[in-house]
Amino acid sequence: MGDLFRKAHRTISYPAAEKNKTFILDVLLKYIQKSVSTKLLEIASGTGQHAAYFALKLPNVTIQPSELDLELMESIRGYAEQVKCGNLKEPVRIDVDQGPWPIEKDFDYLLNVNMFHVAPYSSAVAFFKYGSQVLKNGALIFTYGPYANEGVLQPQSNINFDQGLRKQNPKWGIRDIRDLKKDALIHGISLRHIHELPANNKCLVWQKD
After folding, report:
1. Alpha-carbon gap, residue 88 to 91, rounded angstroms
2. Half-sphere exposure of residue 19, counting CA atoms within 13 Å on the CB side?
3. Could you tell me where the DSSP H helices lie in the chain?
4. Is the pTM of this model over 0.85?
5. Of 113, 90, 81, 88, nearest in space to 9 by CA
6. 181-198: per-residue pLDDT in tens?
7. For 81-100, b where at least 16 C-beta lie within 10 A, e where not — what string?
């Protein structure tokens, strides 16, 4: 019983992740093939809430979570123990800024949730640079979070959020899709779709050409 108690308390829960995981899954289901076995790499998996949920809902997709923070890696393992999905792999330690990433190079999908605005812009650039190296040609990339578009950030709550982020760390802030498109294109990645989601967030769908 003591061992089970410890495992149950290794997990960390973020309310935002619980709220947005269903909305993100709805987008994934529009693009992920259901009839074949595929592989998805999640960069900056955080607590592991998304990886575990998606593994349950996408049984044909092998999901590889990754993190830099050791405490969060323990949480990822905790959620994996809860769902017991054979398609959810042991998390690997990846620093998005340091490449090449120490991972195989045959993924069909790449996913990132809520990293760009709480990291230096250079991390977004590194995400596309090193991400392109581990993806198959034609692979899809999903990035989720708040974004500005063509210099416009809306609504006021996102403007306030952005100001708060930059006060906390001048290198943080909500990114403009216009800038991300330019840097992604350098690495052969093009923006395909923008999905408007609740809470003033977007899911951007990119493709490696």
Report:
1. 9
2. 9
3. 2-8, 15-31, 49-57, 70-83, 121-134, 156-168, 177-186
4. yes
5. 81
6. 999 999 999 999 999 999
7. eeeebebbbebbebbbeeee
